[in-house]
Amino acid sequence: MIDDIRAWTAELAADPSSLIFLRLGEALRRRSQMEAALKVAVAGLTRYPHLPDAHDLYARILSDAGDLERAFDEWDMTLRLVPTHAGALKGIGFLYFRAGENELALQHLEAALQETPDDEGLAQAVERVRDLLQPPPLEPVEPEVEASAPPPTPDERVLLVDAGGLPIRGRLTDPAGVEIGERIGALLAGTAREAARAAGLLSLGEWQGLLIECTQANLCLVKPTPETYLFEVQDPDVPIGQLGLRAERTARAARRWLEAMR
Amino acid sequence: MSRTYLTLLDPLTRLVGARGAMIVSAEDGLVVAEFLMENVKGSALAALAASLANRVARVVETSGRGAPRFMQLQAKGGSVFVALAPADLILVLLTGPETAAGAARLEMLQAVERMG
Known about the structure:
A: alpha+beta; Serine Threonine Protein Phosphatase 5, Tetratricopeptide repeat; B: alpha+beta; five-stranded antiparallel sheet; 5 strands; globular
């Protein structure tokens, strides 16, 4: 491998636009030469900012270096460029697994396995996460009951309001346990209208979410449907990159619930 | 326009997909310093970001979750990032959809620290 690294380094020096930086960066990462790997990856990414494999390489190095939040963002970016990128799916799956989000981990790892069915290590990881997840209930779930189940409201931290700010579902309390759903609902509706106005006037298209990092929590406002807003309170240690994904998951549940109620 | 403020904005404009960075008065949305691409309307961005930040501050206050530090308005075509800075200022970054949120956050919070 040392000979390869030497040869690839020479090749890259002779032609800085060469895509050999991908192999060189990976080889350096595997040899734990993190500083050199980082330098190669960043230089490559600067030259090719829209190259999915460059983001994937950078994410792997960041992940090895323990910078999981930025690694998540880079893999997220890779998936925006190529939604079926196996490396990024695997990487995000791994990060979810580390965060204890086994369901999301399995979802990403299974998607990665679909892209690379010969990856034995990945297949084993999928099996391991499947084992960790609770087995499905033996009794069949009544479809009607499932359809009308409310969106998850862990610890009274999720509130669904209509376009006027009236609470539809969920319950929100402040840290002292005081109900604040109605008071905050109107503020949320106004904030959502302001978000829509800002996105429109800045030619950013439709707004999708508002992520807010506070000193004591992380908050997220998303739009499950054009007539509703969902507000979610998360622990402050949830990285902002994951906050949006979690809120989108809750929004999907809310959307299903709203559809079932119609 | 303060040269120090422009130096603070410089690393933000180097982020992949960055379209402009500004320092804005949180109270009235007036521009203190800006580094923008040609087609970005600075005064509009400043006013909208300040208005949104004020609304968010009220939401956070009502929720009893401390004080806001950083926010991201995500849209299909990009994002507006806002970080609260000392002296009633806000740091604003406008980006395309390709910008990594984590990198933007890191650079902005570092810039805010330098402002303190």
